[in-house]
Amino acid sequence: MAADARDQATQADAASKIEPRTADGKTRYELSKSQVGKLWEELGNPNEPVNLMPGGTYNSAGGKPKEVTFMDSLKSLSFDNFASVYKAPCARDSLLVGIGTGFGVGGIRAILGGLGSLWTASNWAVGSFAIVSLAAHEYCQRQRAIEREGMKEAAELMRELKFRKQKERDAARKLHEEELARKAEEARRKSWTNLSNYKFW
Fold first, then answer.
1. Is the CB of residue 129 less than 8 Å from the CB of residue 101?
2. N or C end: fewer C-beta atoms under 10 angstroms in the chain?
3. Exposed, middle or buried, 106 (CB in 10 Å: 0-12/13-18/19+)?
4. Distance (Å, whole) CA 19 – CA 175
5. pLDDT score at 7
């Protein structure tokens, strides 16, 4: 009886050494051993709630979690995010078009209205910048989507052309092999070493 308990204890110790455990005591699969472990590492623990914002649920046992404030969201932004905005697709061109349009519209409005309309001219400049930038960005994104579809269609056509040429090459090679086999058979039939060509009666 005691030996059985010791055997079970040693088996449990061996199992705990083989399978690492998380902080909450659950078995965590090793990446090299199972597909489930890979999914768990990539997508997270399936027992934990997904897409849960802090403060989304009220935990009466552990108290209310900290609410996300406006300052917390501002702290999560970094200068690098703003400094690399121009690297996004279509952002640079649409911003340049918007800046040019805003400068032109605001300048014309200021010239036509005089010094008293500088505030109005500034509003017109900012409004035209925003509208034209958004429109140019949407137009650029639409053009990129059309170009992507065209590239996908071109890739499909190239693949079909490749398959068709491969079929043509295979058919030509097969025809050539059949022609060579027919010529070899004809040469063997006409050969003077073929005994069936000689008849003695």
1. yes
2. C
3. buried
4. 62
5. 54
State both tokens at 123.
Answer: 């509003």
Q: Which residues pair with 27 in a beta bridge?
A: 21
Residues 35-60 pLDDT 10s: 666 666 666 666 665 555 555 555 55
Task: Please report where in the chains the tokens 């639409």 appear, as a residue.
Answer: 142
Q: Please provide the DSSP assignment of 32-79 as one string.
A: TT-HHHHHHHHH--TTSPSS--TTSS--TTT-PPPPP-HHHHHHH--H
Instruction: Report how far residue 36's alpha carbon sits from residue 44's, in angstroms, rounded to the nearest whole number.
Output: 11
pLDDT digits (tens, 9 = 90+) for 128-180: 999 999 999 999 999 999 998 988 888 889 989 999 999 999 999 999 999 99
- Angstrom distance (rounded) from CA 4 to CA 11: 10
